[in-house]
Specification:
The protein is of the alpha/beta class. About 45% of the residues lie in helices and about 15% in strands.
């Protein structure tokens, strides 16, 4: 089984911080050309600096990917830099707490826009580019790989995270639907649903909250919180030729947490 991604070109969104950054860095370390994309252009510039040079494997793009024109510009910038795109990792995501009984709470709409629609629109545009590349090169093999980041929240019942949970469930269904639609074009579409990973947002929430950390660990059979690098390894597998017969799958990386979490019962 070959897990190599050497020489392939990837776009990784949400790559200025946390999990997205870990995936993008991991891909660079494994020999891929990587376009780091994020709304926080200042953070990208500070992090990458002189590494993002014309003859190197790293570039970055800053912009609000909720805008269709920005998505088109990202794809164009990637083609200008590397002449092709083989892998897309939709790692741009956000979490927001919400009140499921409030008609004025816009969290569901915001989560769908950020976590679903951005990934869908970018996937559609990148898929079209992958199809064109394969036709131009007469390539009857694999044309590309699209990978979405999801969460075990899609399967759990957590009312305070309803917007996020609904968006993740939608991402899972989008993954399956696009996998079937793009299979004749030899493009694979998969997702990684993760549990507790030491992202920037989780680090902030755990600060000075030992009880919360202990509760997460207690609910995770493997007894710890995952490092972002462990999620990056799973994403690399799905991006590689070693996963050449894997499509439409939601790979769960949660230390067994989703096996134990109960449905949240209302307080009486």
């Amino acid at each position: 089984m070959s897990l190599t991604i050497t020489g392939k070109t990837a776009i990784v969104t949400g790559s200025a911080h946390g999990i997205g950054r870990a995936i993008a860095r991991h891909f660079v370390d494994r020999g891929a050309n990587v376009m780091f994309a994020d709304m926080d252009e200042d953070a990208l510039a500070h992090d990458l600096g002189d590494e993002a040079r014309a003859d190197g494997p790293v570039r970055y793009f800053g912009g609000d990917l909720r805008q269709k024109l920005t998505i088109a510009n990202l794809v164009s910038a990637t083609i200008d830099a590397f002449d092709r795109v083989d892998i897309l990792v939709n790692a741009s995501r956000s979490i927001a707490f919400s009140d499921p009984l409030s008609s004025e709470d816009d969290a569901v709409e915001e989560m769908l826009q950020q976590n679903l629609m951005t990934s869908l629109r970018l996937s559609q545009m990148v898929a079209k580019r992958m199809i064109a590349q394969a036709a131009k090169n007469g390539n009857e093999g694999m044309a590309g790989s699209l990978i979405n980041l999801s969460s075990i929240a899609a399967r759990l019942t957590q009312p305070e995270l309803m917007g996020y949970s609904v968006a993740c469930a939608a991402v899972d269904q989008m993954t399956r639907s696009m996998a079937v639609a793009l299979a004749p074009k030899h493009i694979r579409v998969n997702a990684v649903a993760f549990g507790s990973v030491m992202s920037a947002s989780l680090q902030a929430r755990l600060k000075d909250k030992a009880d919360f950390r202990n509760e997460i660990v207690r609910r995770t059979p493997l007894g710890r919180i995952a490092a972002p690098s462990e999620l990056a390894e799973a994403v690399q597998f799905l991006a590689s030729d070693g996963a050449g017969f894997v499509t439409g799958q939601i790979l769960t990386v949660d230390g067994g947490r989703s096996l134990l979490d109960p449905v949240c019962a209302p307080a009486h």
